[in-house]
Design a protein that fits this description.
Elements lengths: L10 H38 L5 H37 L10 H28 L1
């Protein structure tokens, strides 16, 4: 047909899509592991260090559940983006192939989690003095 352009999708685009998916899964597993460690520490503190740490353990558990939910959302979003991009590559559609929302959400979530942990440590240090 006149005017029809045949597009060729290179193999490196498929590999880049898989590599991006694996990176998001790595981030998800890392955040989930940190969440599990925080939850374990909170349970240990609650059982073995007495009632003084009960309120702190509650904050840490809430933070760990928030991070676990974030980890699950990142895994789901990474899987969705992988399938969406793979379909776009198979159909030889033009982009956009980038994700502008998830990196911003991830950065805000991690920074706020670190700020909560840091502020809790500062408050605890100040109350011990």
């Amino acid at each position: 047909m006149p005017g029809e352009v045949i597009r060729r999708t290179e193999a490196k685009a498929y590999f880049a899509n898989e590599r991006t998916f694996l990176h998001w899964m790595n981030v998800s597993v890392t955040i989930g592991s940190i969440s599990a460690a925080l939850s374990g520490v909170a349970g240990h503190a609650h059982r073995h260090w007495g009632d003084d740490y009960t309120s702190s353990a509650l904050y840490v558990r809430v933070l760990s559940m928030f991070m676990l939910a974030t980890s699950i959302l990142i895994a789901c979003w990474g899987g969705y983006n992988f399938n969406h991009r793979a379909n776009m590559l198979t159909l030889k559609l033009d982009g956009p192939y980038d994700s502008k929302v998830l990196p911003a959400v991830l950065a805000v979530t991690l920074v706020s989690s670190l700020l909560v942990v840091f502020s809790g440590a500062v408050v605890r240090l100040h109350s011990d003095s």
